[in-house]
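thread: overnight batch results

M.L. [08:02]
morning all. the overnight job finished for the chain we discussed friday. pasting input first so we're all looking at the same thing
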Amino acid sequence: MTHTYNGMSVHELPPLTWQKSRRSNPSGNCVEMAQLPDGAGVAIRNSRDPDGPALIYTTDEIAAFILGARDGDFDHLIG
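M.L. [08:03]
and the structure it wrote out:
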């Protein structure tokens, strides 16, 4: 796999299995996530722009975010 970086084109990544939240609304306003090969991290893209840029995070960064969201750390961001 090529060197990954935030904002890289999705087309520069190897084929990935993208997953969207079950809470995504019918108009597709959501993000999609995919595990990078060999556990190298996670890619995130805008579901409305699947050919656009991807943000790349380490597994530890994603774990901190998911666990924080589960604990309610970001509830204030959704009104």
